[in-house]
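User: Here's a chain of 574 residues. Predict its fold as tokens.
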Amino acid sequence: MVMHLPKIPLNNWVDMAVEWLQTNLKPLFALITAIIEPTVQFFQTIFDTAPPLVVALVIAFLAFLASRLSIALFTFLGLLLIDNLGYWSESAETIALVLTATIISIVIGIPMGIWSARSQRVQNVLNPILDFMQTMPAFVYLIPAVFFFSLGSVPGVIASVIFSMPPTIRLTNLGIRQVAEDLIEAADAFGSSPRQKLIKVQLPLARPTILAGVNQTIMLSLSMVVISSMIGAGGLGAIVLQSISRLEVGKGFEGGVAIVIIAIILDRITQNMGKQKSATRVSQNQNFLGRWGKPITALVAVAVLVSFGLYKQAVPGSGGKKITLAYVNWESEVASTNVIKKVLENEGYKVELKLVEAGPMWSGVAAGNADAMVAAWLPLTHKDFYKQYKDQIDNLGPNLKGTRIGLAVPKYVKANTIDDLKKDKSQFDNEIIGIDSGAGIMQATEKALKSYDLGMKLVEGSDAAMTATLQKAINAKKPIVVTGWVPHWMFKQYDLKFLKDPKKVYGGTEQINTMASKDLKGKDPKAHKILDQFHWAVGDMQQVMLKIHKGQKPEKAAAEWVKENPEKVKQWTK
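Assistant: Prediction complete.
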């Protein structure tokens, strides 16, 4: 008889710790948010307000001062290419997030590295913590970041700092410890204090190693910022996430090229800053600009960008009231969110969209980081989220009725009920093609697998991956079973049928509800009223979805529908 040790309830302990921190450290989290959010907005305003050509010239000039002409030329042409591809605003947001995360990492990391270099005991304590920080999968950092800071730029920066700070600490420690002993002895012989020895001997000699750590921190920050798009951090990561979810290879490649350009620019500049310059080159630079020429010129260049940002912030009436809408990357929600966004913009609002996963979408509205969402599938799909957050949100009721979820197959498949799948599972390769794991329909399908004893595998993916697999199977007249829901454009384009569900695992008809933050009604009654009155039909949504599927941009498809349906829109805005 094999004895099994009881499972250590580590997950319960972690959940309890997170709950305690959420309850008792709210003021600290609010303070951190109050520091990080304006910093990110400031950097983004600087890069996104001035004309792209001006920004490209200034950054290229700074690259020339920090490195050499070839890098400055690459910087200028690379930034112009990003603007030409149409990703300037997203790139500005990404750079703002990276700069904020890097500054915080340096402010914390370098002092920690110095402390570690001066105390072996501190180093012994820090090393396992840094090992843990560097080996933990990057996605894991998104979970506590969402719990403590909801969604948006702040949790993205926090996750990036935790993930990217270790190289700065390690290499600062290493650089100081590698300073030659005879130089330390000489400093001691001249009567240097520990502070003088650190500032005038150890840090200058350790500078290349420290900057190598900063370089690694910047690169890791950039990679984490891209991943953080899953919790609404935005930027180029959101472009990549959309492309993955919708299988838009070309758009994903463009977003990837923009990320690579930014990475190369940041990498080359910081690498060259860390290199020790020869005496000849130092002399040439001093002859060219004088001893203080470079710092003064760099400050002037930065001042040009800052002045644009400050002017933009000072100009009144630069936009209407701001409304933030969260949504998941399902084609139904892309359609509805962009339609209500267009309606609100026509009413004078400045609308920001945050593309996130289902969990962060609900927590973001509950915490007030997003004003509303029009993507709550009830009573089954988002049942668990609604149960968790129903007391923290304002349920404005359904914006679309008559939805349905279940398992769908092409009409040429003989199976008519879920039970029929068991008769010949091999024709479906023993698989049910699903979407993202956080969706309620996936949880319902896992329940169906057990209830009907199907013995099949549920394949996780995305909406786009599921429909691409479906299209491939239909073209080959091959049997396939997928997770399906109405409204969805695939029911307009293909001859599909839902499998009957006698055990009612998938429930009956569903509806999509609008959820608003608790404070929206008091903060902006007009926006709250428009969202409350937003309601359309399955056919309306599928019109927009089909246009998006056929390649039209969501913004354009939504704008066309709003223009073609003035009477319906009038009912929402009256």
